Amino acid sequence: MELVITLLTVCLVILISIWMRKKFSFWKMRGIETPPLSFYIKHMRMAFLQENSFADRDLLTYKYFKDRSLQHGGLYFLYHPVYVPMDLKIIKHILQVDHEHFMDRGFYVNEAGDPMSAHLFCLEGAKWKNLRKKLTPTFSSGKMKMVFETLLECTVDLKTVMDKHLDSSVNIKDITARFTTDVIGSCAFGLICSSLDNPNSEFRLKGQDIFHRGFLENIKQVILYSFPDTMRYLNVKMIHEDVSEFFTDVVRHTVEHREKNEVHKKDLMELLIKLKNSGNVDDDKSNLENTITMEEIAAQAFIFFVAGYETSSSTMAFCLYELCNNLDIQHNVREEIIEVLEKSNGKLTYESIAEMKYLEKVISETLRKYPPLSTLFRICTKDFKVPGTDLVLPKGLRLMVPAYGIHHDPEYYPEPSLFDPERFSDENKNTRPDFSYLPFGLGPRMCIGMRFGLLQTKVGLIKLLMNYKFTLNERTKLPLRFDPESLTIATNKDLWLNIRKV
Which residues form the signal peptide (predicted)? Predict the structure, then answer.
């Protein structure tokens, strides 16, 4: 009996060794360079011990391939091969020119058992394409102008909270997160969240739960990404039950209340309700084949909150941090804001924001240094021959486009650690190659809510900079480090700033 067990064990070890050798020879067989085993061990240690963030590890990977002047490289995520394009021309083909080969992101979706996961960011194939087409008019410039006044109302509480801390210090990371929570609550759900008044409001707490679930939640996300079919078969949910129930109930009650009482507001929820009832966001048109369900409304409202809450608040906080380190830039952007607002008697209008060209540069440079996502994920949906090479990417292969690495590449951005808004002057932008700036992605799958995210970021910064001067407080821990638990780029410590009246 012992001999049989020993023989079975030996056979199992041999089979596993053969299987692993085959799996981990994927790139070698195709002549694509991969980092050595020591590189992977180091990365796994840093990830499991949460020694640094996704962005930090992504930058190390980028530099490994860049130092070797490679067009592209290969990685392994567990046993899955992952393609890393380095050449911007190849990236352009992936994200835009040959988009139909890379339509999907490869994230976990369980539409039947976890409807909240079936939102625009994760959906694939025809379902994504159809929903994107339906939702695109919701984020047109005209619709953004419609929600502008609703957004502007949230700045009243922002100023009230800031005035309480005059000539003192404030954790700006917390303030901007509460501000964007109120904005998304008002514009996406039509609700007054009062997060600025009450830091422990339910919307604020749910937002924190989504982005900061800790080590075990990150392990769960890795498993869902690696074995999606198995996890769907087991009916595993990506969104936690309490979060899913909260947002589903909020959306259902909001929609039912508005329809029953014929309540109409200038917000994104109004547009989603129109899509549900008539299939069109315009009042004078109808396309019943284009309608969406209550579950789809809930899922899209959820991703609006997720995408708009953390990313915009972090961009605002990072921007103010950089302006504290560059007081001359802070002075210049404030002068522009005041000068433009004088033309409209001090009133901030949708049109006046477009005149603030220097503010646009400052925000663009912030997003260059701190893009919301360090990596853009894609799945090869059908075999693709990489232009200019003999490499054929098979269907099902995973890809990682290194946005953070590109943004910190001295070839495209000399002295990348320097905060320099003039990188985004018309002259300098025209000297850089296409696809060297990817804070929202590019191509058909770029962020649909980009206009809204930029709008709320600009409005918040304008209201803060026109009223207050900021300097760095000694309580801010330097050097700044990214949160290893966060999927997006965010600080792992509070950002304390001194404030005083302009």
Answer: none
* pLDDT tens figures, 400-424: 999 999 999 999 999 999 999 999 9
Residue holding tokens 């507001």?
Answer: 265
Distance, CA of 491 to CA of 135 (rounded, Å): 32
381, part of any domain: yes
Which contiguous run of DSSP H or E holds residue 273? helix 268-278
Is position 62 within any domain?
A: yes
- Nearest residue to 387 via CA among 96, 164, 169, 143: 96
Q: How many domains does the chain have?
A: 1
Q: Check the CA dihedral 269-273-276-279 and report its sign.
A: negative
Q: Counting beta carbons within 10 angstroms of the beta carbon of residue 3, is it exposed (0 to 12), middle (13 to 18) or buried (19 or more)?
A: exposed
Here the CATH number for the domain that contains residue 84 is: 3.30.43.20
Give the separation between CA 385 and CA 201, rounded to whole angstroms.
51
Alpha-carbon torsion, ordered 53, 56, 58, 63, to 10 deg: -170
Please indicate, yes or no, if residue 25 is contained in any of the structural domains.
no
User: Is 193 within a domain?
Assistant: no
Say if CB 322 and CB 172 are below 8 A apart: no
- pLDDT tens per residue across span 368-395: 999 999 999 999 999 999 999 999 999 9
Q: Beta-carbon neighbour count of residue 78 at 10 Å? A: 12
The full 3-state SS of 155-170, as one line of letters, equals: HHHHHHHHHCCCCEEE
How far apart, in Å, are the Cα atoms of 463 and each of 151, 204, 467, 468?
12, 21, 6, 9
Q: Tell me which residue range forms the domain holding 95.
A: 30-101+373-438
- Check the annotation: does 447 bind a ligand: yes
